[in-house]
Amino acid sequence: MPSWGEVQEYARTNYKLAEDGDTFFSLVFAYESGRSQKVFVRKFTAFDQDWVEFRSAVCKEAELPHRVALRKNDDIACGALALDNDGDYVLLYSVPLPSMDLDEFELPLHVIASYADKLERDYSTGNDDF
Predict the structure, then answer these.
(1) Which CATH number does the domain housing residue 21 bear?
(2) pLDDT at position 102, please?
(3) Strand-pair partners of 71
(4) Residue 82 within a domain
(5) Which terminal residue of the chain, N or C, has fewer Cβ atoms less than 10 Å from its own Cβ?
(6) Do 88 and 38 form a contact (C-beta atoms < 8 A)?
(7) In the structure, what pLDDT confidence band is assigned to residue 126 with cuts at 50, 70 and 90?
(8) What is the pLDDT of residues 42-52, one digit of tens each?
(9) Is residue 128 a part of any domain in this protein?
(10) What is the average pLDDT value for the chain, to the nearest integer?
(11) How far, in whole angstroms, is CA 9 from its chain's centroid?
């Protein structure tokens, strides 16, 4: 059960961070296809405990019909699609920090990045904007 500081230090040691704050950081995965995907990781409190959220933008709201997004949620093993305050679809996953180990950091980090990139490629009309 790592602390938030230990999670941050692990990420700093093993990845090049794009952003690094007290309660969040982000990193960008670069794929052989030339595409990239940014994942935000942040600490928040809910139900009287700390949680870690993994979040990656997918596409604009208008680019993915709501019914399709809800059906996609039925197929996602790790995370769910949601609309953020900017009107973008994001793929997110949260885990309670007190029960998380570093393996539970690595797997969702990579799954969220790769699946968000796949959804972006399939639905975004932009050129790898997210």
Answers:
(1) 3.30.1460.10
(2) 83
(3) none
(4) yes
(5) N
(6) no
(7) confident
(8) 999 999 999 99
(9) no
(10) 94
(11) 18
pLDDT digit string (tens) for 4-37? 999 999 999 999 999 999 999 999 999 998 999 9
Q: Torsions phi, psi of 28, nearest 5?
A: -115, 125
129 lies in some domain: no
CA distance 27 to 20: 9
- Residues 121, 129: contact at Cβ < 8 Å? no
Amino acid at 7: V
- Comparing C-alpha atoms, which of 59, 48, 120, 53 is closest to residue 88? 59
Q: Which domain holds residue 66?
A: 4-123
CA dihedral 12, 129, 87, 112 (to 10 degrees): -40
Q: What would the two tokens of residue 42 be?
A: 């942040």
Number of domains in the chain: 1
